[in-house]
Amino acid sequence: MNTAPPVAVAALPSAARLLGYAGLIPFVGGALALWFADPALQAAAVAALAGYGAVIVSVLGGIHWGLGFARGDAARFAWGVVPSLVAWAALLLPPAAGQAVLAAMLVVCYAVDRTVYPRHGLAPWLPLRGQLSAVAAACCAAGALALAL
Predict the structure, then answer these.
(1) Which pairs from 122-127 meet CB under 8 Å and 24+ separation?
(2) Residue 98: inside a domain
(3) Which of 90, 85, 68 minimizes the C-alpha distance to 77?
């Protein structure tokens, strides 16, 4: 078990940082569209934000499947399906509630990862994960608020 302390985000591979930050574009764009775009575009914007949020939440669960395969940690398989199931359920809810669930699930996934990553030698990734999760969750929460008003 490698419990190396987190490193500065700048020390992580530049491709990971660049792709991670680029991955925030649909979150930010979707949230802004729900607040400022023509109301005729709102249905498309909410579908895009919800769909992308659900995909990202599912990917976060998929990381745990990868850990399960690589490390023989059966608990990772069990947790790995939870984000996908919650994300799928969020897509079935009314839009504002679905966005709120996705925002909460992004936070929950990060909380789980803060416990799990250090046990698997992945603590250096937590600062970047924290940044990405904070922005993504804030965008989904902002989308939920825009839809509720």
Answers:
(1) 123/2, 123/3, 123/4, 123/5, 123/6, 124/4, 124/5, 124/6, 124/7, 124/11, 124/12, 125/6, 125/12, 126/6, 127/6, 127/7, 127/8, 127/9
(2) yes
(3) 68
CB atoms within 10 A of CB 140: 30
Residue 95 lies in a domain: yes
Q: Do 101 and 89 touch, CB atoms closer than 8 A?
A: yes
Q: Kindly state whether residue 3 falls inside one of the protein's structural domains.
A: no
Q: Find how far residue 136's CA is from the centre of its chain.
A: 6
- Assess contact for 97 and 144: CB atoms under 8 A: yes
Full-model pTM: 0.91
* Pair 33, 41: CB distance under 8 Å: yes
- pLDDT tens-place string over residues 74-91: 899 999 999 999 999 999
Nearest to 109 by CA among 35, 66, 56: 56
> Which domain covers residue 111, as residue numbers?
11-148
Contact present, 62 and 69 (Cβ < 8 Å): no
